Write the structure tokens for this entry.
Amino acid sequence: MNREVRKGADGEKAGQTAGLLDELTDDHFNERRDVRLNERLDGRLREQRNEQQNEQQNEQQNEQQNEQQAGCSTEAAGDRLTFWGTGDAMGVPRVYCDCEICDEARQQGINRRYRSSVLLEGREGAFLIDCGPDWRKAMERKGLRFIEHIVVTHAHFDHIGGLPEWADSCRWLNRRGQLYAPQEVIDMIVRQYPWLPAQLNMHAVDQGCDLAGWHIEGWKVFHGKNGYSYAYRLSKRGYVWVYCSDAIALSEEQKEPLRGLDLLILGTSFYEEKAEFSTRSVYDIKEALVLLQEVQPKRALFTHMSHDIDLRRDYALPEGVELAYAGQMVELA
């Protein structure tokens, strides 16, 4: 009887010991697994930080080079335009695409393009034209914490996708932003983002407006299958330029404000777009060159470019016609 009790007790102890060993082994395995996962996670985070740092360094170097090419510092007199983005609605690289241009752009190449936007700065003030989904990145690259004035061309996502973040920054800073657009564009924006007026003052510019010393007049332009956009003609002390990022097949009436310009910034998504015309929405380069021959600006810069355009390629453009790139600076004088 005693032997059986002893054997039962010994068996129970052995079972407890085995269970403890199994538990310790599981704990050890889980601990090692957690260590490996943490190591892998730390490695990925380091890679992401390095990529972000490299991207910021490359973009800062580009901006410094642009300033040197412009021949003046950021505190220089006169007004300056900076391209914050020169891409079309999808930007470059395309998430889904492995073409040569997208691959080059992923390596922080010259073909990396954020959604189209320009910043105008001068002694009399500053304002941004369009506020797409890359707005926050552009603010970080520029080292800005607040921008007060933004002009909007039309209510498509690649031109207004950053407005909620802008409004939220206004809320946290307890400052009001000033948004300028034709009334029908404002109405569309508010329908999409009904909370924006709590942080932004909306200014209808159907009769024109004045910002940073520039007189600004907008007019409706044909945007192909996407309906319409607005272009803006800006003038100050005899210098006149137009921003027309989203347009195609302009009528004679719509072309009229493009005449007599010192600078025309025009959207061109492809070099030669093969798609059926009824499906298109923006000029291609070959069509834009025909338009330039007609309206004769002193200088033209093409923006709103897709992954069809390779900035490393020589397109044999006429003198005074260039492909814009992110960070490019232009003196408006």
Q: What stands out?
A: The radius of gyration is 28 Å.
